[in-house]
């Protein structure tokens, strides 16, 4: 069901639009966490570490898919808000064509270089082969991942946040079931975790594209839309490329951090792997709310209703607080039980590392949520220069401080770099929002 975000009370409209997106995050992160829980419980600490060691590399591929999703969703939202349905369809077809070509190129590159990438981040020898195997299977399904993300971006651009939710629920439950079957039942170890993700993602992708095709046929236009348009690709790329760079830069930075963490041994890697999955659950939730604010901003600016954007920002902050408080309480006060979901009491060093990470980082969720909602407005208004400045400043500082502080404080110094980077990025992003640079008359 398509929804016009330019009509109705902004706070209520944004809540109704964003709640299905947040539920989608819950299911998406549940199966991400299930990978690690099942690997750790049924295949051992080394299997958990192998999945965790390859995680920053898989996130580079995910970053490209998510960045492309952002680029197409902002442009399609603007055209949908302006009721320019012919060009909106052209943008959708162009997105799907370009996404297919790009994903195939990246798949070939990733399969050829997977072992080299694992060696580059100094993966310990005892988990190297399993980590490389997981990575190759993951990359083999990148076409499904890419097109599924593109489809999700298109649905949300049209104000439909429920259809992607239904596919994600099915995919997540299927992934968890396959995880258990392949790892606990068939004893496939790390390969079982990877194949479960591959198959579940593939099914969700095919169903999403079939549904999208049917949805587009119901939208009538006076003239036929172009299947591919270079001008539209340039317009999408103007937002997608900075978003890809931003997402990829984060992933590259995480690779540097992972390489540093790998130097502390497989037990610390396992603890970090579990803790970062929990942390990613929270951060992805805030990011998803920011994406909702982006669609809201883009549609309203496209319709010339700029005054509604500020109300959307305030509603986004309220939503982030609503979900941020439970995350903080669970991770800070119950960090040890949360870590025990992934491992046993016998993994004492891994357990201590994960608990320490959560207790250092989680108080600053109330800082990073402001940045991510501010980013939503900037991205929806196509203020990509300001968006990139705030994000890159956060990441560069975080990576540098991780290496600097690890010398006197050990792995604790790595954890301490997160709050400082987040604080600097938030000051910049919120400052850009307050400056009004996102206003179209200013731009």
Gyration radius, rounded: 21 Å
Average predicted local confidence, pLDDT: 85
- Strand count, sense and closure of the main sheet? none
Assembly state: single chain
**Global outline:** globular
- The rounded distance between the terminal residues' Cα atoms is 33 Å
Number of helices: 15
Description:
With 443 residues, this protein is an all-alpha fold. The protein is built from 15 helices and no strands. The protein has helices at 10-43, 45-81, 85-120, 125-140, 142-157, 162-185, 190-217, 230-262, 266-302, 307-333, 335-339, 348-361, 365-380, 384-409, 411-435.
Short overview:
The chain is mainly alpha-helical and 443 residues long. Helices cover 84% and strands 0% of the residues.
What layout of secondary structure does this protein have?
Blueprint: H1 10-43, H2 45-81, H3 85-120, H4 125-140, H5 142-157, H6 162-185, H7 190-217, H8 230-262, H9 266-302, H10 307-333, H11 335-339, H12 348-361, H13 365-380, H14 384-409, H15 411-435
Helix pairs in contact: 1-2, 1-6, 1-7, 1-9, 1-10, 2-3, 2-4, 2-5, 2-8, 2-9, 3-4, 3-5, 3-8, 4-7, 5-7, 6-7, 8-14, 9-10, 9-12, 9-13, 10-13, 12-15, 13-14, 13-15, 14-15
Core attributes:
single chain, 443 residues, mainly alpha, 15 helices, 84% helix, 0% strand
């Amino acid at each position: 069901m398509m929804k016009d975000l330019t009509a109705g009370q902004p706070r209520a409209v944004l809540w109704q639009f964003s709640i299905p997106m947040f539920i989608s995050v819950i299911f998406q992160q549940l199966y991400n966490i299930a990978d690690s829980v099942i690997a750790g419980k049924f295949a051992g600490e080394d299997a958990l570490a192998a999945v965790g060691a390859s995680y920053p590399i898989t996130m580079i591929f995910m970053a490209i898919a998510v960045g492309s999703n952002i680029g197409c969703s902002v442009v399609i939202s603007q055209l949908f808000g302006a009721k320019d349905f012919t060009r909106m369809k052209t943008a959708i077809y162009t997105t799907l064509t370009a996404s297919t070509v790009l994903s195939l190129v990246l798949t070939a590159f990733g399969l050829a270089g997977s072992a080299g990438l694992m060696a580059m981040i100094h993966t310990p020898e005892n988990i190297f082969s399993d980590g490389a195997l997981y990575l190759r299977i993951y990359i083999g399904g990148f076409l499904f991942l890419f097109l599924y993300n593109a489809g999700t971006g298109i649905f949300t651009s049209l104000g439909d946040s429920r259809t992607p939710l239904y596919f994600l629920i099915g995919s997540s439950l299927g992934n968890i079931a396959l995880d258990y079957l392949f790892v606990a039942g068939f004893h496939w170890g790390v390969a079982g975790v990877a194949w479960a993700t591959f198959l579940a993602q593939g099914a969700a992708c095919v169903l999403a594209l079939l549904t999208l095709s049917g949805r587009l046929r119901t939208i009538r236009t006076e003239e036929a839309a172009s299947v591919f348009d270079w001008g539209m690709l340039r317009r999408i790329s103007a937002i997608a490329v900075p978003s890809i760079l931003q997402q990829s830069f984060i992933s590259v930075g995480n690779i540097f951090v992972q390489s540093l963490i790998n130097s502390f041994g497989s037990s610390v890697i396992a603890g970090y792997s579990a803790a970062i999955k929990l942390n990613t659950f929270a951060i992805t939730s805030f990011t998803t709310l920011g994406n909702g604010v982006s669609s809201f901003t883009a549609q309203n600016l496209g319709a010339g209703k700029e005054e509604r954007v500020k109300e959307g920002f305030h509603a986004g902050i309220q939503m982030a607080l609503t979900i941020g408080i439970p995350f903080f309480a669970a991770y800070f006060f119950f960090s040890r039980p949360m870590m025990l979901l992934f491992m046993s009491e016998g993994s004492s060093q891994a357990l201590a590392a994960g608990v320490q990470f959560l207790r250092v980082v989680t108080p600053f969720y109330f800082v990073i949520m402001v940045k991510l909602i501010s980013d939503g407005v900037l991205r929806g208004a196509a203020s990509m220069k300001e968006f990139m400045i705030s994000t890159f400043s956060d990441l560069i500082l975080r990576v540098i401080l991780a290496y600097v502080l690890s010398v006197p404080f050990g792995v604790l110094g790595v954890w301490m770099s997160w709050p400082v980077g987040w604080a600097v990025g938030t000051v910049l992003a919120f400052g850009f929002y307050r400056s009004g640079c996102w206003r179209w008359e200013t731009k």
